[in-house]
Write a structure and sequence with these properties.
Bound molecules: inosinic acid, magnesium ion
Number of helices: 3
Structural class: alpha/beta
Order of helices and strands: EHEHEEEHEEEE
Shape: globular
Helix content: 10-25%
Number of domains: 1
CATH class: Alpha Beta
Distance between the termini: 19 Å
CATH topology: Rossmann fold
Length: about 180
Protein backbone atom coordinates (compact mmCIF):
# COMPACT_ATOMS: atom_id res chain seq x y z
CA UNK A 1 0.00 0.00 0.00
CA UNK A 2 1.22 3.51 -0.81
CA UNK A 3 1.67 5.52 2.37
CA UNK A 4 2.86 8.78 0.82
CA UNK A 5 1.29 12.14 1.54
CA UNK A 6 1.05 15.06 -0.87
CA UNK A 7 1.08 18.78 -0.03
CA UNK A 8 0.37 21.40 -2.69
CA UNK A 9 3.31 23.79 -3.04
CA UNK A 10 2.41 25.57 -6.30
CA UNK A 11 -1.11 25.54 -7.71
CA UNK A 12 -1.92 24.80 -11.35
CA UNK A 13 -3.13 28.41 -11.77
CA UNK A 14 0.12 29.87 -10.46
CA UNK A 15 2.08 27.51 -12.70
CA UNK A 16 0.16 28.53 -15.78
CA UNK A 17 0.59 32.26 -15.07
CA UNK A 18 4.34 31.87 -14.56
CA UNK A 19 4.85 29.71 -17.64
CA UNK A 20 2.98 32.31 -19.72
CA UNK A 21 5.37 35.02 -18.46
CA UNK A 22 8.40 32.88 -19.20
CA UNK A 23 7.19 32.21 -22.73
CA UNK A 24 6.78 35.92 -23.46
CA UNK A 25 10.21 36.67 -22.10
CA UNK A 26 11.87 33.96 -24.14
CA UNK A 27 10.00 35.12 -27.23
CA UNK A 28 11.31 38.65 -26.70
CA UNK A 29 14.90 37.56 -26.03
CA UNK A 30 15.55 35.62 -29.24
CA UNK A 31 15.59 37.30 -32.66
CA UNK A 32 12.47 36.11 -34.50
CA UNK A 33 14.47 35.72 -37.72
CA UNK A 34 16.75 33.07 -36.21
CA UNK A 35 15.63 29.48 -35.53
CA UNK A 36 15.12 28.47 -31.91
CA UNK A 37 15.32 24.83 -30.86
CA UNK A 38 13.77 23.74 -27.57
CA UNK A 39 15.45 20.63 -26.19
CA UNK A 40 13.36 18.83 -23.57
CA UNK A 41 15.00 16.61 -21.00
CA UNK A 42 12.80 13.52 -20.73
CA UNK A 43 10.79 12.54 -18.98
CA UNK A 44 10.35 15.21 -16.30
CA UNK A 45 10.22 18.23 -18.62
CA UNK A 46 7.45 16.93 -20.89
CA UNK A 47 4.53 18.95 -19.50
CA UNK A 48 6.58 22.09 -18.89
CA UNK A 49 7.96 21.91 -22.43
CA UNK A 50 4.49 21.44 -23.92
CA UNK A 51 3.12 24.48 -22.07
CA UNK A 52 6.22 26.62 -22.51
CA UNK A 53 6.43 25.97 -26.26
CA UNK A 54 2.83 27.17 -26.68
CA UNK A 55 3.54 30.26 -24.56
CA UNK A 56 6.39 31.39 -26.83
CA UNK A 57 4.85 33.62 -29.51
CA UNK A 58 7.17 32.64 -32.37
CA UNK A 59 8.06 29.49 -34.25
CA UNK A 60 10.22 26.98 -32.44
CA UNK A 61 11.36 23.46 -33.15
CA UNK A 62 11.47 20.69 -30.59
CA UNK A 63 13.82 17.83 -29.86
CA UNK A 64 14.32 15.56 -26.85
CA UNK A 65 17.06 13.80 -25.02
CA UNK A 66 17.06 11.73 -21.91
CA UNK A 67 19.55 11.04 -19.18
CA UNK A 68 19.74 8.18 -16.73
CA UNK A 69 17.13 8.59 -14.03
CA UNK A 70 17.15 8.27 -10.27
CA UNK A 71 14.98 5.16 -10.52
CA UNK A 72 13.41 4.66 -7.12
CA UNK A 73 15.97 6.83 -5.35
CA UNK A 74 15.25 10.39 -4.27
CA UNK A 75 18.83 11.56 -4.63
CA UNK A 76 21.22 11.50 -7.56
CA UNK A 77 23.95 8.88 -7.76
CA UNK A 78 26.19 11.65 -9.09
CA UNK A 79 26.65 9.86 -12.41
CA UNK A 80 24.87 10.95 -15.57
CA UNK A 81 24.52 9.06 -18.83
CA UNK A 82 22.95 10.18 -22.06
CA UNK A 83 20.34 7.49 -22.62
CA UNK A 84 18.66 9.05 -25.65
CA UNK A 85 20.45 11.59 -27.85
CA UNK A 86 18.94 14.31 -30.05
CA UNK A 87 17.63 13.47 -33.52
CA UNK A 88 19.25 16.47 -35.17
CA UNK A 89 22.49 18.42 -35.17
CA UNK A 90 22.48 21.61 -33.08
CA UNK A 91 25.44 23.21 -34.83
CA UNK A 92 24.76 26.90 -35.50
CA UNK A 93 21.35 26.81 -33.77
CA UNK A 94 20.02 28.71 -30.76
CA UNK A 95 19.33 25.96 -28.25
CA UNK A 96 17.22 26.30 -25.13
CA UNK A 97 17.56 23.33 -22.82
CA UNK A 98 14.24 22.78 -21.06
CA UNK A 99 14.40 20.93 -17.74
CA UNK A 100 11.95 20.17 -14.94
CA UNK A 101 14.20 20.91 -11.96
CA UNK A 102 17.79 21.81 -11.19
CA UNK A 103 18.66 20.01 -7.97
CA UNK A 104 22.34 19.12 -7.48
CA UNK A 105 23.06 20.62 -10.93
CA UNK A 106 24.92 17.49 -11.97
CA UNK A 107 22.59 16.61 -14.86
CA UNK A 108 22.54 20.08 -16.38
CA UNK A 109 26.23 20.81 -16.00
CA UNK A 110 26.87 17.52 -17.80
CA UNK A 111 24.37 18.38 -20.56
CA UNK A 112 25.75 21.90 -20.98
CA UNK A 113 29.21 20.40 -21.43
CA UNK A 114 28.09 17.76 -23.93
CA UNK A 115 25.85 20.07 -25.99
CA UNK A 116 28.30 22.98 -25.74
CA UNK A 117 30.87 20.90 -27.61
CA UNK A 118 28.52 20.66 -30.61
CA UNK A 119 28.91 24.33 -31.56
CA UNK A 120 25.39 25.71 -31.07
CA UNK A 121 24.94 29.44 -31.83
CA UNK A 122 23.82 29.79 -28.21
CA UNK A 123 22.95 27.44 -25.38
CA UNK A 124 20.80 28.42 -22.41
CA UNK A 125 18.75 26.76 -19.70
CA UNK A 126 15.05 27.16 -18.95
CA UNK A 127 14.00 25.25 -15.86
CA UNK A 128 10.56 24.97 -14.32
CA UNK A 129 12.03 24.62 -10.82
CA UNK A 130 15.23 25.49 -9.03
CA UNK A 131 16.17 23.79 -5.75
CA UNK A 132 19.35 25.75 -4.95
CA UNK A 133 19.85 24.35 -1.43
CA UNK A 134 21.21 21.07 -2.78
CA UNK A 135 23.48 22.44 -5.52
CA UNK A 136 26.77 20.61 -6.04
CA UNK A 137 27.69 21.94 -9.47
CA UNK A 138 27.09 25.51 -10.54
CA UNK A 139 24.80 26.05 -13.52
CA UNK A 140 23.83 29.29 -15.15
CA UNK A 141 20.02 29.39 -15.32
CA UNK A 142 18.69 31.88 -17.87
CA UNK A 143 14.97 31.25 -17.21
CA UNK A 144 13.60 29.93 -13.91
CA UNK A 145 9.96 29.28 -13.10
CA UNK A 146 10.03 28.91 -9.33
CA UNK A 147 12.50 28.34 -6.54
CA UNK A 148 11.51 25.42 -4.29
CA UNK A 149 12.68 24.43 -0.79
CA UNK A 150 14.60 21.25 -0.06
CA UNK A 151 11.62 18.92 -0.40
CA UNK A 152 11.03 16.12 -2.86
CA UNK A 153 8.44 17.44 -5.31
CA UNK A 154 6.12 15.70 -7.75
CA UNK A 155 3.50 16.65 -10.31
CA UNK A 156 3.46 18.78 -13.47
CA UNK A 157 5.74 16.20 -15.10
CA UNK A 158 7.90 15.30 -12.10
CA UNK A 159 7.66 11.81 -10.69
CA UNK A 160 8.59 9.56 -7.85
CA UNK A 161 9.10 5.95 -9.01
CA UNK A 162 7.11 6.78 -12.21
CA UNK A 163 4.07 8.06 -10.30
CA UNK A 164 2.45 11.50 -9.92
CA UNK A 165 3.61 13.01 -13.24
CA UNK A 166 0.04 13.86 -14.23
CA UNK A 167 -0.83 15.92 -11.13
CA UNK A 168 -1.83 19.44 -12.17
CA UNK A 169 -0.35 21.09 -9.07
CA UNK A 170 3.23 20.83 -7.91
CA UNK A 171 3.22 18.90 -4.64
CA UNK A 172 5.73 17.95 -1.99
CA UNK A 173 5.83 14.22 -1.32
CA UNK A 174 6.08 13.30 2.34
CA UNK A 175 6.70 9.88 3.80
CA UNK A 176 3.94 8.39 5.92
CA UNK A 177 0.30 9.38 6.26
CA UNK A 178 -2.40 7.76 4.20
CA UNK A 179 -3.29 10.30 1.55
CA UNK A 180 -2.25 9.56 -2.01
CA UNK A 181 -4.03 12.41 -3.70
CA UNK A 182 -3.17 16.07 -4.18
CA UNK A 183 -5.92 17.91 -2.30
P1 LIG B 1 20.22 17.01 -10.58
O1 LIG B 1 21.16 16.32 -11.53
O2 LIG B 1 20.48 16.60 -9.16
O3 LIG B 1 20.19 18.51 -10.75
O4 LIG B 1 18.76 16.47 -10.82
C1 LIG B 1 18.30 16.24 -12.05
C2 LIG B 1 17.05 15.42 -12.12
O5 LIG B 1 16.67 14.79 -10.90
C3 LIG B 1 15.88 16.29 -12.46
O6 LIG B 1 15.83 16.50 -13.83
C4 LIG B 1 14.73 15.46 -11.98
O7 LIG B 1 14.33 14.55 -12.98
C5 LIG B 1 15.27 14.72 -10.79
N1 LIG B 1 14.87 15.38 -9.54
C6 LIG B 1 15.62 16.17 -8.73
N2 LIG B 1 14.90 16.61 -7.68
C7 LIG B 1 13.66 16.10 -7.84
C8 LIG B 1 12.43 16.20 -7.09
O8 LIG B 1 12.32 16.87 -6.04
N3 LIG B 1 11.37 15.52 -7.60
C9 LIG B 1 11.42 14.78 -8.74
N4 LIG B 1 12.52 14.67 -9.47
C10 LIG B 1 13.64 15.31 -9.03
MG1 LIG C 1 14.76 15.51 -15.21
Amino acid sequence: MDSSRLEVLISADDISRRVAEMGLRIGADYPASEPLLLVGVLKGAWIFLADLARAIPRSVSIDFLSTSSYGKERTSSGEVKLVRDLDESIEGKHVLLVEDIVDTGITLSYLMRVLGQRQPASLRIATFLDKPSRRREGVDIAYRGFEVPDKFVVGYGLDFASKYRNLKDLCALHEGGSQDRCP
